[in-house]
Amino acid sequence: MQDPRIRVFSGIILSLAAFISIPGAAAVFIWWLIFTPVRTQLKRIRLVIFMVIVIALFSLLLELTAGGGGISYFTRMMVIILIGMWMFTEYQPGDFLKLGTWLFGDRTGFELGMLADMGMQSLSQLNLDFDRIRLAVKLKGNQWSIRNLVPATLVLVHGALMRAETTAELLAIRGFTSGGSLNPEFSRTKKEVIAGVFAIVAGLITVFPVSEFFILS
Amino acid sequence: MKISLHNIRAARQNWSLEADATFTEGLHLVSGDVGSGKSTLALLMAQQTDPLEGNIHREDIHSMMLSFQFPEYHVTGLTIADECESWGLEPDTILPSLGLNLRKDDSPLSLSRGELKRFHLTCVLAKEYDLLLLDEPFSSLDCYQKTCLRTQLETRSHGITVIFSHEQAILPRVSHIWEIETGKLIDCGTPPDALMQWHHIPKIIRNLIKSGKVPKNISPEDLEEAACRTRE
């Protein structure tokens, strides 16, 4: 999906719809199957495995201690993760800068968009760094284990801080103080518009029960 | 002992890399512009990523090490001494030569990039590997350290050592030169003949050749010898 406006808007509606109810989550899951490149996303499933494990543990705890609701919570959260994965894989550098400026103008919008874009790029870099660290551990002839997490986290944080410092210096050197000007241009396909409309439909299904639309005896 | 790349191809978006080559024992230099695919080729040769097409065959290679451009990736110890031990090395024998014996309880990440690179390369080069792949080993080092590294690399007598670098000034005496150009790995051959085929040739060597003084190899000594050579 090329147009970040449709993507972000759809992402917000779909996430809310999936969170609110199981029928909503089902509708969002169907939307995800129809309108997103499922195979490409499944290849990247390992990126969210840690998150899935944490949610699974929390859901299990909820199911056992709160008298149910854990399975429903897990199902809804998994669908939200799928939507998050889709938004992450479709992201192109500069998307949030364009979207922010379009929404809130050259000052606040530009800055918010720039911050969001920096965050997204940092996330991609962290992912790349983590792959390299795991490989480096393997090259030393060691198995990746929980013991590697502390030094790996230190390296990741250290790298992120170093890059942030370099970026801040670059911005200062280039004379950045606040805001900036940008004339965002967006392109979209018919399929994207249809996907956006159906995201709204999925949202409506959550808010209004299906029985509201049909005369059921 | 050799590693053969049989018509391998790697690609992403608008970029691709093709290679059909065999690396035998000795010191190899792979040069190329930034973004040409040197790091990808190193990963492919280390068999840490799969090519889209073709295959890689190794013969009599039982140990391998790939050194990344950024030494931070290799850090698995919380202290410099731990890090030394993670490479199977004794801190008391390694650290004094680096002037780090008083800092062995410090975090490796408290070292500057140059110090960490030097420490990392010392750990890597302290062992013998059948296949040693060094991605940009000269980056972050000062001239003195580059010269020390060059000398260390030249003294390696075992296995296949491949340097992936765009370094132009201080290079070791190599047995083979390769370059990546327009998405292909090109075999330039062995020096001095390779110098005539090498498009990424350092300016100083190009000027020497222009003046009719072809160096025997690419190390600073070879260049000095060529520069001081009197014409017959």
Order of the strands making up the biggest sheet of chain B: 5-6-7-3-8-9
The number of distinct β-strands of chain A equals 0
Task: Kindly report how far apart the N and C termini of chain B lie.
Answer: 41 Å
Q: Mind describing the biggest β-sheet of chain B?
A: 6 strands, mixed
Number of domains of chain B: 2
Largest interface: A-B, 17 and 18 residues
Q: Please state the oligomeric state of the protein chains shown.
A: heterodimer
Backbone CA Rg of chain B: 19 Å
Percent range for β-strand residues of chain A: under 5%
Specify the structural class of chain A.
Answer: mainly alpha
Spans of chain B of 5+ residues with little confidence (pLDDT < 50)? none
Number of strands of chain B: 9
Q: Mind describing the biggest β-sheet of chain A? A: none
List keywords for this structure.
heterodimer, A: 217 residues, mainly alpha, globular, B: 232 residues, alpha/beta, Rossmann fold, 2 domains, six-stranded mixed sheet, three-stranded antiparallel sheet, 8 helices
